[in-house]
Specification:
- The protein is α/β, with parallel strands linked by helices and 357 residues long.
- The protein contains 7 helices and 12 strands.
- Helix 4 crosses helix 5 and helix 5 packs across helix 6.
- The N and C termini lie far apart (106 Å).
């Protein structure tokens, strides 16, 4: 029996004593009949492996070309050359202090985009403070987390007065109605409670980080992923050069916010703090509970929620500290040369007119 007789008209395989054979049908005819050629399985396997090899090599080449096109070129960091010599860039617990010149935003953007993060920005626009909301949002659209998914969470007692602001792609605004209080101090202190309770809702799952800010501010320069970390606080512009005994901590031992004169790292301002959702929830819940204890004992910390924030960040150290670039008031302080940029600044206002109305 010759090899050609192993195949019937149906083209189905038949067994012969020499093993399995494969026919290759070529796209031409000879004398009106389709010609059949047979390959030994070993030859076929070799051809298949060769084709697979060249295909994998081509795909790897495409991936390598893609990787090469996304490679970043930047100056090498030198172990013996500090990024800044004029400021402290690392805390004793090894948390970075963020100043201009201490980070490469291109590298950070590359890393955070791989994580596909969503950032929340919470702000309280209660009573007449609603008048600051438009500038806050418009400036955030220009400078805050540009290129990332951002949700603005506006806590307000005047939902109907929330301005219509044009938002960029992947940016949205959520209005959260809250009650007001007669005193501005109560409004300020209740923020911790409201944020804590908000973060216990299912909506917390839609974001990775939450930044908490005062509304009577505006963004005037880049504020991006360099601030993101499990927990951050911001140096108060009036105390970043002061000794700890000059800090306006709560000094009465009866208060849950009490810090003795011989303790303290920095003085943090309550107008800009944040971190991961889990850590911000832990912070706001602890501060709210501490204020509830003080309230039961008929005591109010000297700087309200800010005093409790400082006590919390003394006990649970922040993983990043933001320099005063991220919180400044040009109406009260000149622009010092040590600050290369002013990123988040206070808006001029009449406190007495705004606070209790």
């Amino acid at each position: 029996m010759n090899r050609g007789e192993l195949w019937g008209e149906s083209g189905k395989e038949r067994r012969d004593p020499g093993g399995w054979w494969v026919t290759i049908l070529l796209g031409h005819r000879s004398e009106g009949k389709l010609k059949h050629y047979f390959l030994h399985p070993g030859t076929l396997l070799l051809m298949t492996l060769t084709l697979v090899f060249f295909r994998v090599a081509a795909v790897d080449g495409e991936h390598e070309q893609s990787r090469a096109s996304s490679r970043m070129v930047y100056p090498q960091p030198m172990a013996l050359t500090p990024a800044r010599r004029d400021v402290l860039v690392l805390t004793p617990w090894l948390a970075p202090i963020i100043w201009e010149g201490t980070f490469n935003i291109d590298i950070l953007n590359e890393q955070f985009r791989l994580q596909n993060i969503t950032v929340g920005l919470s702000v309280f626009a209660v009573k007449k403070y609603i008048t600051f909301l438009r500038l806050f949002l418009e400036s955030a659209e220009q400078h805050f987390m540009v290129g990332y998914r951002v949700t603005y969470y506006v806590f307000t007692d005047r939902p109907a007065d929330v301005p219509q602001v044009g938002l960029g792609p992947r940016r949205r605004l959520a209005v959260l109605p809250v009650r007001s209080y007669p005193r501005w101090q109560d409004v300020s202190m209740r923020r911790m409670q409201m944020i804590s309770q908000f973060l216990e809702q299912p909506s917390r799952q839609e974001m990775d980080y939450l930044v908490c800010a005062d509304v009577d501010m505006k963004f005037q320069d880049h504020v991006g992923v360099e601030i993101l970390t499990p927990l951050f606080g911001t140096l108060h512009p009036g105390f970043y050069t002061s000794k700890r005994d000059a800090f306006t901590y709560e000094r009465r031992p009866q208060s849950q916010a009490y810090i003795p004169h011989d303790q303290g790292d920095f003085y943090y301002m309550g107008a800009f703090f944040g971190g991961s959702v889990a850590e911000v929830h832990r912070l706001t819940k602890a501060c709210h509970e501490a204020m509830a204890v003080d309230r039961a004992n008929n005591i109010e910390a000297v700087w309200h929620d800010e005093s409790h924030l400082n006590k919390y960040l003394l006990l649970r150290k922040p993983t990043k500290v933001l320099s005063p670039e991220y919180l400044w008031d040009l109406h009260m302080l000149p622009w010092p040369s040590v600050l290369k940029k002013l990123r988040f600044v206070a808006v001029h206002k009449n406190h007495q007119e705004i606070r209790n109305r």
